[in-house]
Every structure is written in structure tokens, then in C-alpha cells.
Amino acid sequence: MRISRLLTLFPILVLAEQTDPGHLTAHRLNRAEYNNTVRDLLAIDFQPAADFPADDSGYGFDNIGDVLSLSPILMEKYLAAAEKIAKAAILPPPLPQPTMVRHGRGENRGSTKAPGLIVAHRFPVEGDYTIVFTLVYRPDPVRLSFSLDGQPYPTAHVQDGADNWRTAEVRAHVSAGQHTLDAQLIPDGPRAPDPDFESGKSDKPLRDPMIGNIEIRGPYHPVTPPPSESYRRVFTCADPAGPQSLLCARIDLANLSRRAYRRPVTSAEVDGLVRFVQMALDQGDSFNQGMQVALTAILVSPHFLFRIERDPDPAKPAAHDISQFELATRLSYFLWSSMPDEELFQLAAQQDLRKPHILDAQVRRMLASPKSKALVDNFGGQWLQLRNLDRIQPDPDRFPNFNDDLRRDMKRETELFFQSIIREDRSILDFIDAGYTFANARLAKFYGLPEVDSNQFQRVQLPPDSHRGGVITQAAILTASSFPNRTSPVLRGKWILENILNAPPPPPPPDVPNLDEKAVGSSASLRQQLEAHRTNPVCNACHASMDPLGFGLENFDAIGRWRTKDGNFPVDATGKLPNGKTFDGPEGLKQILLSDKSVFAQCLAEKLLTYALGRGLEDYDQPAIQSIVTRTAASEYRFSALVEAIVSSDPFQKRRVQPDEAHALVPAQSGKGTNP
Amino acid sequence: MIVTRKHLSRRTLLRGLGAAIALPALDAMSPAFAATTQGSLAPTRLAFVYVPNGIIMNDWTPAEEGTVFELPRILSPLKPVRDEILVISGLRQNNGFPLGDGPGDHARAASTFLTGVHPKKTYGADIHAGVSVDQVAAQHIGQATKFKSIELGLDDGRVTGNCDSDYSCAYSNSISWSTPSTPMPPEINPRAAFERLFGAEPETPKVRARRQRYEKSILDYVLEDTRQLTRQLGPTDQRKLDEYLSAVREIERRIQLAEQDPQQIVPPMEKPYAVPAAFQDYARLMFDMMWIAYQTDLTRVSTFMLGREGSDRTYREIGIPDPHHPLTHHRGNPEWIEKITQINTHHVEQFAYFLEKLKSTPDGDGTLLDHTLVVYGSGLSDGNKHDHADLPLLVAGGRMGHGHLRYPKETPMNNLHLTLLDRVGVKIESLGDSQGELQDLSGAA
Fold this sequence. Notes:
By secondary structure, chain A is of the alpha+beta class.
């Protein structure tokens, strides 16, 4: 376990009798949290943190308070982003110019084999649009029937183009937002002739006609939209004196700052913000300009950028409950990577949030909400290394069918799988072995599963001989733990040790002697080459536990496909652990991993607790961890039980001051600072 | 003039001639010629270019010492500027070695390169290295420019997990540290780098002045707010918010400078919108921006990491699909060594592009290269064995002349840093593990 060097230096005698809940440093929002918070605060969707520098990670996650620093360049970006956000929220956006967007068959939501094409499109604003359909292959006489969100339009006339390409056009007045376009072909006569094939000039007949793509051109004559959702979230006041009075400014800014700072605000704080509006008016600028300046100030305030928790007396290190609002904030950033919503704020204001039955109900509500996708993206993305998958570049010579579409599909499978465990409140043991997964046409073919007739992902029951089931058989994890040109049993074994068995191998000792390559012919299989690693006793200590786990997965190549041969050598997927247990192949490996359920449960509990708290775990967290595991086991290891146990634990609900290790604390004197 | 390091240094020569050397008339419109304490011959700018994972030293170190030497294979792209290159051998970063901390040489290589301080082994709380030489320079010579320094890079640092044997990713992602616990992350997005230097949208002076006025009041407001807040917080929180305070003050300084000098610079290049696919194009795009930043005096100090330490980049465009880092653990395999040499040479080609640009740009009484000291090197020499001794380094420009200088084996690299700082007019007692300046750091004119 990780030992806190800080803590061993400073004896905390006061806490000898109670469990130590640990200390959280003022915790700045990371990129994902910033994006989500801005989205939930102001309904602004353009991901302002895309430009921010990378957040440093610690303990495997990028939301660790102590590690997140604030460099001048990040502050600059915060200021620029705040200005941009405030402008977007308050000023009406310019009406968009006409553009052309094309949707191809890759986005088809209908059957991949049917000639029609069904796509979704987000129309930016209400207006006139021209929709052009391109038909390909054999030019049979057909009519095109088109419907928008199920509402049919008159059938369109199909015009000839060059080269067996034909088009049809529909003009429509469409409202802003997401709409579904459904285009189908209706035969209108006998098949067209295929002269090239009939004469033998071409050796393949023309395929049946289908719709190749849908182009949406516009908007033409856009209609000015009503005030956006963002605008309405800023200007909430409906004072008869008029929405542009200073009284309304006060009401609006009080509401905004309460939500942005995630706690009740003082009238002095609101005064400070209203002064910006006054300043703008004094300088001859508009009321809206003043509100923009005030909103910008809110967005660069430390109260917004940091999650700050208070101690009643920074000089006393005793543990204490965090406040209701602080609890709401921890909860929402844990499960949603975002700010609390009104319901959580209400419960906090009523001092009800800490009550166990209410807290549990909130956990279940939050897990069921679409916002819990953040848990999949941010916790899952890091625990299961899905973010690393983006950077992996398999060798195109060896794996010519690997491309970005496949990469996206792999990622999606694992994301949907994680999501299903949350949504269906399944046992966390399903992570190790489950009878189902998610796939689209391309991924099902890649895995050799029964055919899936759609580009959209569907739940797939795994046949008994599929060799798949659980995360260690999913291509995303298998690829992320391989090299570009070959598998690495060491990397895979290490991943399993770290992320399933909670037994991370120690780093290699200094001065590891180089392997004598000459002693191993390059005609040896990878397994044989790695055996040579283990004849050296220095290496063997760790590799004896790491390598066999990776060998169990050797049937999966470097991009996760099933294989029975590695080059010229048959795959040997047997493994023998230091404790003498043997297994063969992924099924056997999974049996071993499941043989002691509490091991994985503790592993996941520790990782999830680290993520939930935003700090590394220490020895004093052990009692809490044990109790979390016990509670989870008692509820058949359900995911919601794990989350509820974490959320009710002492480390989550309490805190203590971190004494400065350099010198003893000076008790605060009223009215004066505590800066030593 | 000067032939080898055994002769008198240039400065001694100048002193011998007497201090009364007439300075050329200062050009008021070009603040880059602000007088330095050493007169107009002295360089006014610094740049540090870093390559990761070490270099194949056999093809880097010239066989001969002194001013007459063949450019070895990796340095051969520098032929057009060979008169301005000083290759330096023998320096080491002692604090890059484990010194009892076990593995983690990549984290240490990057974090000691410009600091000379042994970093604290942690991947969570309390990252701690030292202040880097570029930031020391920035504190002094950076006050007069809009940006005290700029940090650029090409590798995405967004990796999960700990990056190198229980060291935080912060250590291998940056070489620049403004305080021992504040790394300066490199900007890897060309559009963001461009917008930072030249502004996101063109603004009229009136609009810009108004924006800056409002920004100042916002920043004053949050500064005061923060000061009140930190009085009520415990010591660790105060330290966190200190970072916030310094960052805010830095922006205020910049706004103040901009208000005094309201000229808006029109960038002589198009705004880039995407990251170029080929490494060469990407590197040159960033080098272009560094060049323009120097030319327009937006900054005088920069660092550029051609890759994060431990980089896994593949160089398919030159026929190498293998990731860089594992390749450098070649264990004597000649094919792998050949590939690494090609990568090393490819890096130097991009660096040569930069030097040629600097050389072809007039600057006062000479060229931009004459007034800029550019360091190129790596925190590792032998990437296979993770060696931090006899580091691959060269200094270009600054009218240092050309040569190959070899220093005694135990010489700390930070002696070089001290010397460079002195050249740009920043005198400090020591930095990291420095023991004094490098003797006779100069070559032939």
C-alpha cells in the first residue's frame, strides 16, 4: 500500500481514537470538470477546456487535488475562456451562414443492407434547407420517399447524373435542433440494363441501387431564434422594473454566483459583482456588457475554479463532518464530474443530504442520470486505459485492417459495457466475466461474433465458444496493453496485477542487467524469449507473477483478435502462478481472477475511492476500505452498493486539517491572518 | 580570433582592450536592442531545444576537439550553419542518476536538464524539482517583453497512470520550472500557441483597450477576494492558492505592459488550424512561431521539447514505424541503433531549419542568430543504459564561434547554465548543483 511520507513525519495524537478521514487540498477543476460545469451552469456546449494544458495525473487519475497545479498559462486560458463563455451566454449569436453537411452510409441508422438511408442531423437554426440525396449503382427507375421525424414529404423526382450517380432534391423548412431524416427508394419500373456486364466488359454486375449519401445545405432565410437557454440561465429576473435594472442585476448575479460557487453567497460577494455592472454603465457601456464582465469575474474566481472546503478552525487538526454543500459538491463531481443540480442544492440547504436513505436515493438517481456518463468517461477511461487507446498506433504493415473507425468501435464497446453495469446495477464481478457485450457490424465481424446488421451498437449475447466476456477480453484493453507490432505479456500481466488484483508490481530494481540477446535465437517464440528473462533470479521475483497472467491472454494478438498461432509458433496460453495454480487460456485465467472475489472488490473499491476523493489512499484509509468491501459483498457486489458504501464512508463525509509539516500551527487570532 | 578553449576568453580580451567601446545608436522602435550590461555584442535571447530518450553518441560526438572537426552523421544537417555551432562534451547531470531512488531516469532526465536539482520521487502530492535556468532568465530579461517566456512542445502529455516508475507525469512532460513545484507545461497546439502570441481575433485599439480595462478590474477583484479567502484556510490550501495568485499577477503584468505599448503586432504567417500530420511539418511550424516571437520581441526566452521524455512517437515518414522509446533500449542490436540514429538525425534536421531561419534574419548589427544563444540537447546520453553523463549538448549562435569543447568528466551541466545566464547579463551565485562557470566557453569566429 502507498505510504504517506508526510504523515509519518507528523504524529497526529489527537486522532488516535477516531479514524482519520484524511485531508483534501483545495482542488482545482480539471479539464473535463470545467467543461461539464460550464455546460451545467450556463448550457454552453463548446468545450472551452479543449485548449487547456494537460492535467497532470497522480495515482492513475487526473483529478488528484495535490497534483493539479495552476500555471500562468492556464490562468491566461481561464481568462480567455471566461470572456468567450460570458459573451456566448449573453450576446445573441450571429445567424449562421449556409453550409453543406454530408452524411454517408457510415452514419446509417437503418439496416446496412437496405437501400435506404436514415441519419440524424442537428439543424443549427430554424430556416429553409435544401436536402440532396445521391443514388448510386444500377440506375433502376425509382422514386425517393423522404420523411423528417416520421412526417412524410412528397416523393422526390430523381434526376440523372454522370456515371450511374443520380440525385434527388427536397426543400424543407426545418426547426432548430436534432431531427431524423429517413430516405427510402420505391421501385418504379423494370430493372435498368447493365450493358457492361452483359457484354462481358465488366466481370461484376452492378449492384442494386441505394442511397449513397444525404447532403444538407443551408440555412437559407434563417429565423432569429428566441433567447437561448444560456441567456435564460443568466437573466432569471422578471422584475416589473425591467430586466435591465440594477435590482435585477443583483438578483441574476446572486443566483449565478450561488450556483457557480456551489454554496450560499454573502451580500458582500454579490455587491462586488454588481459593481461591475455599475462600472460598465458609468463608462457608457451597456447593461449587457456589464453583466458579461461580472460573469467573467465569476468564472475566474477561485471560488469557481477550486473546490474549497472549510475547516472551522484551521489550527485544530480534529476530524469533522464536511458541510452539506461540500458533500453535495463531492457527490456531484464524483458521479457527474460536474456541479450539483438544483435538487442537490435544495437538499443541502435543507440539511437533509447526509441522511442515509436520502443519500442512497440520490446516489441511485445520479447513477441513472445521463450525466453519469462522466463516470464511464473519466473513471472508466482512466482505469481501463481507454484514453491511452487514442495514442496507440498499431503497425499498419502487420495490422492493415486497424483504422480509426475500429479504434472508435473498440472504445465504444468498453464504454457501453461499463455503462450497462452502472445502469443495470450489475455485479462488479461482471467486469471480469460477463455473458454479453456490445458491438456494431464492424466490431462483430472483427471478433468473429454472429453478424450484427447495423452501424449502431447493440447488445450482443456471447456464444459459449466466443472466448469473449469481461474487460480483459475486450479489444480496447488488449490493444492498449500491447506494442504496435506485437503483444506484451508483461504489459498485460502488469495491467491485471494493477487493475484487477490490486497487487501492482514494484518498479524494476536499479541497474537491471541487460538481457543477453545472443543467448536467445530470434527463431524462438515470444514466450520462449520471455522464459529467458526469468532464468535471471533478479528478474524472476516479479516476472514470475506478471508474465503468466499475460501468457493467459496470448491468444489475443496485439489488436485483440483471436489467434491460435503467433507467427510460426502455436500459441501456448497456459500459465503457472507462484502459488502453484495453473490455468489454460482466458477462460482459465478468469476463473483464477474470480476465485477470491474480495480481491477484485477491494481493487475496484480502492481505485473508485481514490477517484471519488481526488487524493491517494493512505494506511489510515484501510478501515474504511474494508468496510466498503464488506458492504458491497453483502449486496451481491452490486455497483450501486459500492458507490453508496463509498459515499457514506468517513473519508468521503469528513475531513481534517493537514498540519504544515514545517512548523507547528499558530492558532488563528480573530480578525488577523494565520500566515506565519 | 579565438582558436581553442586554451586561449583567453572573449570577455577577457574585451576587458583588456578597455571598456570604452562605442555602442551603436539604440533603435527606439526596436526594444530588442535595449542595452545590456555587456554592450551590443552580447546576446539578448535564450532558447533551449530538447530531444528525448538520448542520442547515439558514437554518431554525435566529433572525433576531433578544437575548431577543426568533421560533423558526425547526426550533426551533418548543421553543415550550413557549422560556423555557429559549439559542440560541448563531458557535462553531466549528476542529479539525473538514481542516487538511491531506483528507476525513473526519464522523469529525472527531463526535470534535471535545466534545473540540476534531484526531483522528489512522487507521483501524487508534492512534486518538487528546482527552478530552471530559462525561468531564471525570464525573471530578469523577460520583464520587458509581453511574454516572459514561452514553452512549446509536440507530444501530448495526457497520459494516464504514472509516467515513469512512480514519478508524476509532470516530471517528464516539462523541462521548464518556474518554482520548484510549478512546472511550465509546453503548449502543443499550434493554433493555441498562435492565438496566445498574436491574439484570437483582430481587435481595434479601442476594443482592445476596453477589454484590458475590464480585465484589470476583474483581476484586481479576484486578487483581493483570494487574499481574504486564504486568511481563512489551512497551510496546504494557502499554497495551492498561492499558485493562483502568482498566475493572476503575471497576467496583470502583461496587461500593464500591453497598455504601455499599444502597438499590435501583425503576425507574418497564417493562423494554423490543425496539427500537421508529419513530424517535420509540425516541428517546423512551432519553430516558425518561435522565430517570429523572437523577431517581434514578444519574448526573449523559450523552451521547446521536440518530444516528451520517454516519447513513444513513431516516425513513419522516414520509414520507422517503431515507437521511439522502446527502440532506444536497443541492447546492442545494430538494426535498432541504425533506426535511432535516423531519428536523431531527423530531429537535428528540424533544428537546422530553425538555426538557418535565425541566421537569415537581420537583427541590429548582425543576425537574429548572433543575438540568441540556442542550446540543443538531451537529458540522457546513452538511452539504452540511461546514462546522465557526457550529455549530448551544443550551443549555437550568440557569436560564440564554432568548435568542439570537451570538459572534464565530473563537470556539472549547470555550469553551462550559469555561463549562459552571464552572457545574457544575468548574474547569479549558483543554480542547482553548479560549481561556477564553464571555463573558456567559446570557439573560433
